[in-house]
Write a structure and sequence with these properties.
Blueprint lengths: L1 H21 L2 H8 L5 E6 L5 E8 L2 E8 L4 E5 L8 E9 L2 E7 L5 E8 L6 E2 L7 E7 L7 E8 L9 E6 L4 E6 L5 E6 L5 E7 L5 E5 L8 E2 L7 E5 L5 E6 L8 E6 L4 E7 L12 E5 L6 E7 L3 E5 L2 H13 L4 E8 L4 E7 L6 E6 L5 E6 L12 E7 L5 E7 L11 E5 L13 H8 L3 E6 L8 H4 L4 H20 L8 E6 L1 H12 L6 E5 L5 H7 L7 H6 L3 H4 L18 E6 L8 H13 L3 E6 L2 E2 L1 E2 L2 H19 L2
Parallel strand pairs: 30-31, 30-32, 32-33, 33-34, 34-35
Antiparallel strand pairs: 1-2, 2-3, 3-4, 5-6, 6-7, 7-8, 9-10, 10-11, 11-12, 13-14, 14-15, 15-16, 17-18, 18-19, 19-20, 21-22, 22-23, 24-25, 25-26, 26-27, 28-29, 29-31, 36-37
Helix pairs in contact: 2-12, 6-7
Length: 633
């Protein structure tokens, strides 16, 4: 018996060793960066069906779940077909419109189909001459949606007219002529276009209002720095996000369209924005169309449900899943069941079906069914003081493996810059943690969600502060004795790629490796080459400040490559239409002339992101090897 037990123990230890050996950079990259099984789940108006993009044969296809029939059906790509699903819209309770992209993620057409998915019909659109953008699906107006049509033969107007697209006839007709400065439109629940958002000289925007079709437009006297979220069901009130002072936070308020003033108090949640367009999402009931709740981000996602039925279900679900973000997509089967989407920092999103009579929760589909939450790392919200005393927020994830030594650190810098890192499942973060690295994500000044002062109004604010706020975050983690001070890398995509190289330049003794992917390293060259909408994104976001633009050379890492001491990895897709690959090629040339150790990887099948999941996995294998070479000496 003793001999048999010894053999069993030996076999068990060998099994553990084989498991450990299997966890290579290659196997981890393949696991964490495979495409999600589903995305973009949405209930149909009336709640009889659930649509989502489903991964079929390594491409996304439209799939519909029929609750009454308890069955799924899909429109899959044909063999050899390079097209993949991009967007799905419910036009009414039984009609969908879906858009596809080609292998380069370029828009390649749209089709309309009944819920049986049997006979999709393409919407005729000469892409060389014109294109359209969906403004409102008008889910309670049969067969029609609102679109703006851009005529490329007329130069691709900055201010296109508003049209109605009839999905049955697959044709559109003009309903509002753009006066020449309107950049956005909003309809009420009945489909009447009653709000327009115009761009004024200098880049500021003003809201215009009318009571009904045919009435003249008039300025809507909203408080300064306000954004409109939705009409209420009656069409007499607006849900708005508003600030009171330049440095104030956004708060949620009700605007009376008859009295033209804010009604009641403004709901705020310091130090976070509530209702800011970039950081808040609102939810409509699929049966009534009423706005029933909002989601905004504090250190974790936060939901406010206005409807009593939604609040009751949310309480029950939060008890069942206490450490998750639980989103109610709506109700089905005459309100007897609720559809929930749930996720956490350790668990990818999944769809659940909750029986409100029995309390039974049934899992329907998971984005990453092979991910085991119990093996994932915890993303912890943190805050620290920057060198100038400003409070900065972020997230720290420590590696899952137990070790007596402090782990290396990766400062993962988000792009944008007018976005923010949020709490939730992140494949990059979990990949790095599985490799044994701690990950710090800093919502530096220039990020959204923390008020206008934090976001700033000029291009130079994030370009400057990202360098120092991230470095101060790294120093804080070192002072807290959470990470190894001699093994720190900085890494980011796009604007984050700029931050990585600029950080290595300004703090050469802090970082031992820098990775810039699709980054901007010569701001002046980028500004001159950027032609999106005939304007640079700098102009689009900040209005183009001449004084700030003079600082472009000063803030360009390409001009100070000799200050960088650590090894550098540059990656860029040669098909990138957002940031040209010439940025990385020029940066590599500057590093070579300065004698800085570096490697440049370019790929023709990559744009400002990945088209092919195989290319994505290969990229992260290269990244993992580079980190191992530079941080684990």
């Amino acid at each position: 018996m003793m001999k048999r037990a010894a053999l069993s123990l030996t076999a068990f230890l060998l099994y553990l060793v084989s498991l450990s050996a299997a966890e290579t950079i290659e196997t981890l990259a393949a696991r964490f960066f495979k495409s999600a099984q589903y995305r973009d789940a949405e209930l149909a108006p009336g709640g009889k069906y659930l649509s989502y993009a489903s991964l079929i044969n390594n491409k996304y296809a439209l799939e519909v779940y029929d609750f009454a029939a308890d069955s799924r059906r899909a429109i899959a790509s044909k063999a050899g077909d390079d097209y993949s699903l991009s967007n799905i819209y419910w036009i009414d309770s039984s009609t969908l419109l879906y858009e596809v992209t080609d292998a380069w993620k370029v828009y390649a057409g749209a089709s309309v189909v009944d819920v049986d998915l049997k006979k999709p019909k393409p919407i005729e659109n000469d892409q060389e001459r014109s294109s359209y953008n969906i403004v409102d699906t008008l889910p309670f107006v049969d067969n029609e949606c609102l679109v703006t049509v851009i005529d490329w033969e007329r130069g691709g107007q900055e201010f296109p007219d508003l049209c109605r697209l009839n999905v049955k006839s697959r044709s559109y007709y003009r309903v509002v002529v753009n006066p020449g400065n309107v950049v956005g439109w909003m309809a009420d629940k009945s489909g009447v276009i009653r709000l327009a958002f115009a761009k004024e000289a200098g880049g500021s925007r003003v809201a215009l209002y009318r009571v009904t079709d045919g009435d003249p437009w008039m300025p809507l006297p909203l408080p300064g720095n306000s954004t409109v979220m939705n009409f209420d069901p009656t069409g007499k009130f607006l849900m708005i996000a508003t600030t009171e002072e330049e440095n104030d936070l956004y708060g949620l308020a009700t605007w009376d369209l008859q009295k033209m003033k804010v009604m009641g108090r403004v709901f705020r949640d310091p130090p976070y924005d509530v209702g800011a367009a970039e950081a808040t999402e609102s939810f409509q009931d699929t049966t009534t169309g009423n706005v029933v709740g909002i989601k905004y981000h504090t250190d974790k996602p936060k939901y406010i449900w206005f409807d009593a039925r939604y609040r009751e279900v949310a309480r029950a679900v939060n008890i069942a899943f206490p450490d998750k973000a639980n989103e109610i997509l709506g109700f089905i089967n005459e309100g007897r069941e609720a559809i929930i989407e749930s996720y956490s920092d350790r668990d990818p999103p999944g769809i659940f079906r909750l029986n409100l009579e029995t309390g039974v929760m049934e899992a329907m589909i998971s984005a990453h069914p092979d991910i085991k939450p119990e093996n994932m790392a915890t993303m912890k919200p943190v805050e620290f003081k920057a060198a100038d005393g400003e409070t900065i927020h972020g997230y720290l994830t420590l590696p899952t493996e137990n070790s007596t030594s402090l782990p290396p650190l990766i400062a993962l810098v988000h792009g944008g810059p007018t976005v923010r890192d949020t709490w939730g499942y992140d494949s990059e973060v979990q990949y790095f943690a599985a490799l044994g690295y701690a990950v710090l994500q800093v919502n530096y000044r220039g990020s959204v969600g923390y008020g206008l002062k934090h976001k700033g109004r000029t291009w130079a604010r994030p370009v400057n502060y990202v360098i120092h706020d991230v470095a101060d975050g790294v120093k804080w983690a070192i002072q807290q004795q959470l990470v190894n001070p001699d093994k720190v890398a900085i890494y980011g995509w796009s604007f984050g790629g700029y931050a990585a190289l600029a950080g290595a330049e300004n703090y050469p003794d802090l970082y031992k490796a820098a990775i810039g992917s699709a980054g901007i390293y010569d701001w002046k060259a980028f500004y001159k080459s950027d032609k999106s909408d005939k304007r640079s994104f700098i102009d689009l976001i900040y209005g183009g400040d001449a004084e700030d633009l003079e600082k472009m050379t000063e803030y360009s890492p390409i001009k100070a490559a000799a200050k960088i001491k650590c090894p550098v990895m540059l990656f860029h897709g040669s098909s990138d239409r957002r940031v040209p690959s010439s940025q990385s090629e020029a940066m590599a040339s500057a590093l070579r002339k300065a004698g800085v150790r570096h490697k440049l990887i370019t790929n023709s099948w990559v744009g400002h992101g990945f088209y092919d999941p195989k290319k994505r996995v290969k990229y992260y294998i290269e990244l993992g090897k580079f980190l191992k070479e530079t941080l684990e000496k």
